[in-house]
Amino acid sequence: MKIEGQGTKERDAFKYTLKGFKENGEEKTIQFVTNDDKPIKEGTYLKITADEDKDANKKHLIKFH
Q: Would you say which domain of life the source belongs to (predicted)?
C-alpha cells in the first residue's frame, strides 16, 4: 500500500486510514496508529500483513525508520 496524504496527529503519534484490496478482490480499509511523533512521508510504500481477527492485530508492531 502507498501512503497518500498525511496522517492525523494524535498526541505523540499519527493515525492513518488506508484502503486496499484483499487477494479475493474485496475492498478493505485498514487503520493504524504509529508510535512516533513524525509522520510517514507521502509516497512511502508499506507492506502490511493483517489478520481478520482484530485482537490478533493488536499484537503486531509496525516500525518505520
A: Bacteria
Say if residue 42's pLDDT is above 70. Answer: yes
- Residue 2 is classified by DSSP as B
Residue position matching grid coordinates 510517514: 40
Distance CA 56, CA 31 (A): 14
Residue 21 CA to its chain's centroid (Å): 14
User: What region, left, alpha or beta, does residue 28 occupy, with left being phi > 0 and alpha being psi -120 to 50 degrees?
Assistant: beta
Give domain limits for the chain: 8-57
Distance CA 62, CA 49 (A): 10
